[in-house]
Amino acid sequence: MQRYPAFDPPEYVDWSPDPEVMRQFRATIEADSGRRDCVERLSVERLVALYAGMVRFRLHDIFLKRWVRQGVISKAWLGTGEEATTVGPVHALDRGGEEGDIVGPMIRNAGACHEMGMSVADMFRGYLATADSPTRGRDLHIGGREYGVITPVSLVGSLAPVIAGLGLAFRLQGSKRLALTWVGDGATKTGEVHEAFNLAAVQRLPVIFIIQNNQVALGTLLDDHHAGADFSEWARVYGAACAAFDGNNVLDAHAATRWAVEKCRSGEGPVLLSAETFRMGGHATHDEAEARELFPPETFAFWGRRDPIGCYETWLLEGALDLSTGEPVAPGSAVESNRAVLAEAEAAVTAEIESAAEEALASRTDMPAAESAVEGVYGEWPDTSNPGPAPFY
Questions:
Q1: What would you report as the CA-atom Rg of the chain, rounded to the nearest whole angstrom?
Q2: CA-based angle 288:289:295, to the nearest 5?
């Protein structure tokens, strides 16, 4: 994909595939027969959609960073470097809107919103706080029940019990639907996350929790808040199923989540997945310099070589499938035709993002009226002649 020197992390600007990293990328898929079979069954349309989804997520973040530089917004929370951890799992779900599966993203999982069907223009409007934004200007945390997206919560981890509650509702309804959410490595130290894990396990709920270990909680390094080796075995404490996946390998993320989905649909939930990944920036755009000071340059270089989009693009280009025909070929023999297919997908996504940004910026002429601040805040008793006890707010 095209690189943007003004906005991409420096490790991504002149990115080229590292032979050892690509060997590991391929070996990860081959290591588990179930995941390998899942990947081999993916259609060309799905393979390209995974690529387009990650590019869409990356460009969404780049446009937000551009707006910060231009003074349009003050800051943004980005998922650069973690696109695979979001896009792979979402594409493993039933994205059927109000009747499909449910996701509860963190703000750094913004890619889940557009991959579940939300328009990028609406996502941008959320940051601009316009009257026609999904929250009508109240908050940049956005969601939509019609898309199956539960609005993120600023307190990372607070959504875990909400997702467990949805799983309980699905089980009581006899539904095959399931709910999925991401939990940051730092948020694993909050009580409500453990309560959600425990409730889901005791009640055998159709819920998938993904621990998104990006090696740092705000500005606290993983080693300063976590004594264990990793998160891959955490679910065993609760008596639940668990697995780990490479958070920078979209195919591994997708296949691991498909396995978790099948377990949940068959009544064997919940499943706790752990993803090792890294955010290539600060907690938000205002502290990118501090993030660079937290880690040695070697850490950014290590994860920079593992750019999830670059690695997946290389795998597609050099793979044994001609993306233009869907036919199997000798590995590496369809590089040019595959490059053309991916370039077309990237061009379409780029045009989509540019149009969405223009549409959202045009909405700034319609800012929320002051009196709208109290709309939808207070509830009313349906029967005013018999109100019952006074409501508690």
A1: 21
A2: 90
Region for residue 94 given its phi and psi (left: phi exceeds 0; alpha: psi -120 to 50; beta: otherwise): beta
- What is the rounded CA–CA span in Å between residue 292 and residue 303? 13
SS (H, E, C) the chain: CCCCCCCCCHHHHCCCCCHHHHHHHHHHHHHCHHHHHHHHCCCHHHHHHHHHHHHHHHHHHHHHHHHHHHCCCCCCCCCCCCHHHHHHHHCCCCCCHHHCCEEECCHHHCHHHHHCCCCHHHHHHHHHCCCCCCCCCCCCCCCEHHHCECCCCCCCCCHHHHHHHHHHHHHHHCCCCCEEEEEECHHHHCHHHHHHHHHHHHCCCCEEEEEEECCEECCEEHHHCCCCCCCCCHHHHHCCEEEEEECCCHHHHHHHHHHHHHHHHCCCCCEEEEEECCCCCCCCHHHHHHHHHHCCHHHHHHHHCCCHHHHHHHHHHHCCECCCCCCECCCCCCHHHHHHHHHHHHHHHHHHHHHHHHHHHHHHHCCCCHHHHHCCCCCCCCCCCCCCCCCCC
Tens digit of pLDDT for each residue in 181-216? 999 888 888 899 999 999 999 999 999 999 998 888
Phi-psi region of 335 (alpha: psi -120 to 50; beta: other; left: phi over 0): alpha
CA atoms of 158 and 391, how far apart (whole Å): 24
Mention the CATH class of domain 17-365: alpha beta
- The label of the residue with tokens 């709910």 reads 179
Residue 296 to residue 135: CA distance in whole angstroms:
39
pTM of the model: 0.93
Report d(CA 138, CA 156) in Å as an integer.
19
pLDDT in tens, 250-299: 999 999 999 999 999 999 999 999 999 999 988 889 888 888 988 999 99
Angle, in degrees to the nearest 10, between helices 83-90 and 308-318: 60
**Alpha-carbon torsion angle 289, 295, 301, 306, nearest 10:** -100
Q: pLDDT tens across 46-63, in order?
A: 999 999 999 999 999 999
Rounded CA separation 355/63 (Å): 11
Half-sphere exposure of 305 (CA within 13 A, CB side): 14
